[in-house]
Design brief:
Chain A is α+β, with helices and mostly antiparallel strands and about 260 residues long. Chain A is about 30% helix and about 40% strand. In chain A, the strands form 3 sheets. In chain A, strands 2-12-11-4-7-8 form a 6-stranded mixed sheet. In chain A, strands 1-3-10-9 form a 4-stranded antiparallel sheet, with no helix packed on it. In chain A, strands 5-6 form a two-stranded antiparallel sheet. In chain B, strand 1 and strand 2 form a beta hairpin. Chain B has one domain.
Chain lengths: ~260, ~300
C-alpha cells in the first residue's frame, strides 16, 4: 500500500516543480471535504461528497486579470486486473472471444471543472495533467505505452463505466461562490466500490495551473452490511452454514404456518 | 424502498424483489417445482452478477424444498431408500458442478455456459414434455387409453448390474441409471442455480415408473440435500452467497408458493402439464434469442483479481 502510494506521489513531485515555477508570492490553495468517511448503510443509494476550496492570496500576490478556474479529479480504488471482453459472432451465436486486460485502472473517476475542459486549458496541458476519463490508462510513472490494438477496449471500458455512473465528467461542476471560494459536489453512485478515493484539486488562471492540493476520503460499508461482507469473506464456512440454516428454518416455518392437513 | 446488498454490492428495490419472489413462488407452488429456473435468469436480468444470482438462488431452493420434503415426510409420501441413493449421486454432481462453475468463471465464459445450458436443457426438456402432453390430449380425444406397463416388462437399462429393490416405489432397478441421472441433476443444479426437480420428476415418473404419489416428495428430499451442499460450497469456494438477498427471496418465495399450491389444485392435471411444458420451453427460447440476436453492447467488463 505504501509502495503504491509512493508510486502515485512521484509524478506529483514533478508537477510540484512545474507549479513551483509560478514563484514566491503565488496563491496557495486550501481545500476541505464535507466528509472523509462515507458510510454505506442498508439504505445506501449513492451519496455525495462536497469539496470546498479557497484561494489564499497575500500582499505580494500579483493581481489576476482573468480570475480563477478549478478542476477536481477524483480517483476511486484501483482494480488490479480488469478484463474487457467483446462478443463476436461464431456461427449462429454470439460469444465472448477477444479480450484485453488492464491493470491498475481506477474503479471510479470523476472530473469536475468550473468551465468546459476545452475552455479551461490547452490540449497539451490537459495531457500533462491527465484530465479526462480517457486518461485513466496512462501509466502513472514513466514509459511502457499500452499496445495500440487496445484502443477499442479502452473506449468500451470508459463507455461502460460512464453508463454505470462510475466515470463522469461534469463541466461547470465546480462553482465559484465568490472570486476566491469555490465548492463542488462529487456524486457517488450506489455501485461505487468501497475503498480509498483520492481527490486532487488544481487551480488555474489563464489556462495555467498555479496551485494544487490533494486530499482523500474513504467509502466504507458499515454496521450490518460490513459485518455480513466481512463474515462471508473471513469465515465463509460459518457463513455458509448460517445461510443454510436460515433457509432450513424458513422452509420449516412455512410447513408450520401453512399446515393444510 | 431501496436496500443495499452487501455481497452483490448494489442497491435494489426490496418490493420489486419480494414481488418477483412471490410471483415465482406462486408459479412454483402451482406446478410443484422449485422455481430456480425462473428466478435465476430474472435476478441476472435485474443486474445482479450471475455468480451471485446462481449461488444465492440455491438458498431459496433449500427453503422451498425443505417445505415440500417435510410435508411429504408427514404424509409418508416419500421413498427414503430411493431418495438416499439419488442424494448420493446428486452430491457428487453438485461438488463437481461448483468446481466447474468456478473454473469457467475464471475463464470468462460463465455467461455463455449458463445461457447455452439453459437453451439446451430447457428446449429439450420443455419440448419432450410438450410432446408427451400433446400425445396425452390426442389420445384422450380419440378415447384411447394409453397402454399400461405389464408385470415383468422392463426397459434394458433397469437390468444393468447393481440392481436394488425399492419397496415404496415398486421398483427393482440397477443403481447405475439412477445414480447417473441424479449426478447430472446435481451438476446442472450447481451450475445453473436450479433444483432440477423439473428434470428429476418426469424421469422418475416416465422412465422409472415410480408411483406419482411419492415422486415429488422423493425428488424434493434429494434436492434439499443437493442444494444445501451447493449453497455451502458456493459460500466457501466462490463467496458469492448474499445472505440479505437470500432472505428476501426466501420470504417472497415461501408466501407465493403457498398461494400457488392452492391455485394449483384447481388446475386439471393434463392442462397443468401442458402449461408447465410451455413455461419451460418459453424460458429456453428466451435464452436462445439472447444467444442469436446481435447484442446491443458487445463489450463487458470483469474484475479478474490478481
Amino acid at each position: 500500500m505504501r509502495a503504491l502510494l509512493r508510486l502515485f506521489l512521484t509524478p506529483l513531485t514533478a508537477a510540484g516543480l512545474l507549479l513551483g515555477a509560478a514563484g514566491a508570492g503565488a496563491e496557495t490553495l486550501l481545500t476541505s471535504l464535507s466528509s472523509h468517511q462515507v458510510l454505506i448503510t442498508s439504505n445506501f443509494t449513492g451519496s455525495q461528497v462536497v469539496v470546498f476550496g479557497a484561494v489564499q492570496r497575500d500582499d505580494q500576490t500579483i493581481a489576476r486579470a482573468s480570475g480563477y478556474d478549478a478542476a477536481i479529479i477524483v480517483r476511486g480504488p484501483r482494480q488490479q486486473v480488469l478484463t474487457v471482453r467483446e462478443k463476436e459472432r461464431l456461427g449462429p451465436i454470439w460469444i465472448n472471444r477477444s479480450q484485453a486486460k488492464f491493470a491498475d485502472v481506477p474503479s471510479y473517476y470523476a472530473l469536475l471543472t468550473s468551465r468546459p475542459l476545452s475552455e479551461l486549458t490547452a490540449e497539451i496541458m490537459r495531457g500533462r495533467l491527465r484530465l479526462g476519463a480517457d486518461m485513466v490508462f496512462e501509466p502513472e510513472t514513466g514509459a511502457e505505452p499500452a499496445p495500440a490494438g487496445d484502443a477499442r477496449f479502452r473506449e468500451a471500458l470508459v463507455r461502460l463505466r460512464a453508463r454505470d455512473g462510475l466515470y463522469l465528467q461534469i463541466d461547470r461542476g465546480v462553482t465559484f461562490i465568490n472570486p476566491t471560494i469555490f465548492r463542488a459536489a462529487i456524486p457517488l453512485p450506489a455501485e461505487a466500490p468501497t475503498g480509498n478515493y483520492e481527490v486532487e484539486v488544481i487551480l488555474f488562471t489563464d489556462g495555467v495551473p498555479i496551485a494544487r492540493d490533494r486530499t482523500n476520503f474513504e467509502l466504507v460499508k458499515t454496521g450490518f452490511e460490513e459485518q455480513i461482507a466481512r463474515w462471508a469473506e473471513t469465515n465463509s464456512l460459518a457463513y455458509g452454514a448460517a445461510t443454510a440454516f436460515m433457509a432450513l428454518f424458513f422452509g420449516w416455518l412455512a410447513t408450520v404456518v401453512f399446515r393444510r392437513d | 424502498m431501496q436496500l443495499y446488498l452487501p455481497i452483490a454490492e448494489m442497491s435494489v428495490n426490496v418490493f420489486v424483489l419480494l414481488g418477483l419472489g412471490a410471483a415465482v413462488g406462486f408459479v412454483s407452488g402451482m406446478f410443484g417445482i422449485g422455481g430456480g429456473f425462473l428466478m435465476t435468469p430474472l435476478l441476472i436480468f435485474l443486474g445482479i452478477p450471475p455468480a451471485v444470482a446462481v449461488a444465492t438462488q440455491t438458498a431459496q431452493i433449500v427453503a422451498s424444498s425443505t417445505t415440500s420434503a417435510l410435508s411429504a415426510l408427514r404424509r409418508n409420501a416419500l421413498d427414503v431408500k430411493l431418495a438416499t441413493l439419488l442424494t448420493t449421486g446428486a452430491l457428487v454432481g453438485t461438488g463437481l458442478g461448483v468446481w466447474f462453475f468456478a473454473a469457467v468463471r475464471r475463464a470468462g465464459q460463465l455467461d455463455l455456459v449458463i445461457v447455452l445450458s439453459y437453451v439446451t436443457l430447457f428446449t429439450v426438456v420443455g419440448g419432450l414434455m410438450l410432446r408427451e402432453s400433446l400425445k396425452e390430449f390426442w389420445s384422450q380425444r380419440k378415447g384411447k387409453a394409453r397402454p399400461r406397463r405389464r408385470a415383468g416388462e422392463h426397459p434394458a437399462y433397469l437390468g444393468l448390474p447393481l440392481r436394488m429393490r425399492f419397496h415404496r416405489s415398486h421398483l427393482y432397478a440397477s443403481a447405475i441409471p439412477l445414480l447417473s441421472i441424479s449426478f447430472f441433476v446435481g451438476f446442472a443444479g450447481a451450475v445453473l442455480g436450479i433444483g432440477g426437480g423439473f428434470i428429476m420428476v418426469p424421469v422418475l415418473l416416465y422412465v422409472f415408473r415410480v408411483p406419482t404419489s411419492i415422486v415429488v416428495g422423493t425428488s424434493q428430499f434429494q434436492i434439499l440435500w443437493a442444494t444445501m451442499a451447493a449453497l455451502f460450497l458456493h459460500a466457501v469456494a466462490n463467496q458469492a452467497v448474499d445472505a440479505v438477498l437470500a432472505l428476501i427471496l426466501i420470504l417472497g418465495g415461501v408466501f407465493g408458493a403457498q398461494f400457488g399450491a392452492r391455485a394449483g389444485q384447481y388446475l386439471r392435471a393434463d392442462l397443468f402439464r401442458f402449461l408447465l411444458a410451455l413455461l419451460i420451453l418459453g424460458v429456453g427460447v428466451r435464452f436462445a434469442v439472447e444467444l442469436v440476436v446481435r447484442p446491443t453492447e458487445p463489450f463487458s467488463i470483469a474484475a479478474t483479481g490478481g
